[in-house]
Amino acid sequence: LHQYIVLKIEMPSWNTTEVIHPVVLADDNHRVLIDCGYAGSLPKIEEALIQHGIMPQNVTHVILTHQDHDHMGAAAAFKRKYPQAQIMTSVIEAPYISGEEKSLRLIQAEQLQQSLPPEQQAFGEAFCNMLRNIEPVRIDRALTLDEELPFCGSCRVIATPGHTPGHISLYLPALNVVITGDAMALEKGKPVIANPQFTLDLDLAKASMERLFSIGAETIVCYHGGVIRKEDVIL
User: Fold this and answer.
1) pTM for the full model?
2) The CA-based dihedral angle spanning residues 169, 35, 87, 109, taken in that order and rounded to the nearest 10 degrees
3) Which of 172, 145, 147, 159 is nearest to 208 (CA)?
4) How big is the chain by its Cα radius of gyration, in Å?
5) Neighbour tally for 192: CB within 10 Å
6) Region 73-94: what's the mean pLDDT?
């Protein structure tokens, strides 16, 4: 048993509905959840896991690609309910997710707030407050870049900085799939930089996206946008 399962979870976000795609890696010994959704999304994550025949209490690991609220927002709630799950992220992202360092996204939002026009001030402040209220979670294991993890034969940690400094993606050679997190998104089926206006280093983000393409994996799974096959990529 070596497989990856792409979840599809819909969450209300401000005045719209966001669709996110956490991924589960499953082999004989592991059930690995990659990214953990928004704060409050735990019931939907549980429901999606069960729909795919995975009991949440059997999840062995949760890998967080980076510190953003839509990727780690439910991690603390998941860990509290399912303490057997080992929380993992890159050594660079770990202090932000664990709350030892202030979220870089919150710092960015607070700086942006100072220049927002009056009609956007209320939204900006609500966004800052939402970020302030994200519950940190202790990291059980910090991952080094290019580390090989024993999931589904081999799961390689790929450094894909730019969106955040320690952002990671994952490559599974046996399954011929790359899981991008926010190093890449799909818009109308086309690969793009995820939220370029909020990307902390756009040049690094572009280089990271190129790195993912250079792997040549048959399938690419984007947290925002879902699945695209290599032959369907139009740049």
Assistant:
1) 0.96
2) 90
3) 159
4) 17
5) 16
6) 98
